[in-house]
Write a structure and sequence with these properties.
The protein is of the alpha/beta class and about 375 residues long. It has 13 helices and nine strands. The protein has a domain of about 230 residues: Spore Coat Polysaccharide Biosynthesis Protein SpsA, Chain A (Alpha-Beta Complex).
Length: about 375
């Protein structure tokens, strides 16, 4: 997915010296986020001012008021910078901001514009990194909506039926995981594996986590803070998002020559199974997968409505079914794509610094949902362009 129209004049780190005070760097990839960006900057500024941490907004050419809002804030607040992201992908925008960071900058804090964050979000991340010695601290996500359909979609994404039980989408428990919603990362680790792969438009976060794990890095899912995520507002946008997630997951498997896991095959098998319905005139059994899918979506919707004490949340059942079907279609589209995926191995083992020392309580490694990317969504709505 691309980020939009040609970007205009830039207010940001490319016009001056390297960015960062040696402690950290906050990067926000954006595209058409006028509705959220002002409040998001307000929530981050207290930490940024207290710690002297720059906030880099890497914009992919927004066509709404996003750039104007950020430029106005940058005029009043020197810590805020507006950076053009001509490649229009989240991965490219973050990589570009990191390339401008001062060499002594230790931490990358990734913040997604289509979300809301608690006032102590950055402080909690840094504290967790110090306590666990992790190279990356990832967070859980909780979806919320404003209208009837968006609230139903949010309920679906918060449910096990909708998210497949992904560790970062359920009530998170502090433990080591394979993947989670990107939040804090040791820049030395990020650079050691080559940063985000800019050939990925989606699932760039999970693909990076795979390289981090191969390099010996430790990824910690914190239970002390979560991200509030705003899902898509229409079924069409939701379907496109999850098709892209499926393609991104397939690209990761192809790049690293891996086989899908069982839970990924379960979701991936949905589209082929439903397509058997066209053979229904030959035998009723061919219609069974479609009938079971419809019943499952209905049962899930009923469960959401009862749990939320709101009959309108029943729309979440069909929304979850759509998410799975779109992911399945995208997965096969990506898996059957001609030509090998570009393979880039991790550049080297992650060097352990002072903040990365010490044992981490080991628990079972959590696996991400088959139907998700960095957001599984925000992403990280895992690549989405900044959504």
């Amino acid at each position: 997915m691309t980020q939009g129209s040609e970007a205009g004049p830039e207010t940001g780190p490319e016009t001056g010296p390297e960015t960062g005070n040696g402690a950290g760097l906050i990067v926000i990839p954006t595209f058409n986020e006028a509705h959220h960006i002002g409040g998001l900057l307000d929530s981050l500024l207290p930490f940024a001012r207290r710690s002297g941490t720059p906030i880099i907004v890497a914009d992919g050419g927004s066509g709404d008021a996003t750039r104007a809002i950020v430029a106005a804030r940058a005029q009043a607040e020197p810590l805020i910078r507006l950076l053009d992201n001509p490649a229009r992908l989240q991965s490219a925008g973050i990589n570009r901001a990191v390339a401008l960071a001062a060499p002594e900058t230790r931490w990358l804090i990734r913040v997604d514009a289509h979300a809301a964050y608690r006032a102590d979000f950055c402080d909690v991340l840094l504290a967790e990194a110090a306590e666990t010695g992790a190279d990356s601290v990832v967070v859980g996500m909780h979806a919320v909506g404003e209208g009837v359909l968006q609230r139903a979609i949010a309920a679906a994404q918060n449910s096990r039926f909708g998210n497949g039980g992904a560790a970062h989408r359920m009530a998170p428990q502090g433990r080591l995981v394979d993947h989670g919603h990107h939040a804090l990362m040791l820049l030395a680790a990020f650079r050691a594996v080559g940063g985000y792969d800019e050939s990925f438009s989606h699932n760039e976060d999970a693909e990076l986590d795979l390289r981090l794990a191969q390099a010996g890095a430790r990824i910690w899912l914190t239970a002390r803070t979560v991200v509030t995520y705003y899902p898509r507002r229409s079924l069409g946008a939701l379907a496109r998002q999850y098709m892209n997630f499926g393609r991104g997951r397939a690209a990761t498997l192809r790049k690293h020559r891996q086989r899908p896991r069982l839970r990924q095959w379960v979701v991936a098998g949905l589209a082929p199974a439903l397509s058997l319905a066209i053979l229904g005139p030959l035998h009723p059994a061919f219609v069974a997968p479609l009938a079971l899918w419809v019943l499952g979506c209905g049962a899930a919707g009923t469960s959401l409505a009862v749990a939320g004490r709101d009959p309108r949340l029943a729309l979440g059942g069909p929304a979850a079914g759509l998410m799975h079907l779109a992911w399945s279609l995208g997965f096969w589209s990506g898996l059957l794509r001609r030509g090998p995926a570009r393979a880039t191995a991790a550049q080297g083992p992650v060097a352990r610094g002072p903040a990365a020392r010490g044992p981490v309580a080991r628990g079972p490694a959590a696996q991400g949902s088959a139907a998700e990317g960095q957001d599984g969504q925000v992403g990280q709505d895992g690549q989405r362009v900044a959504s």
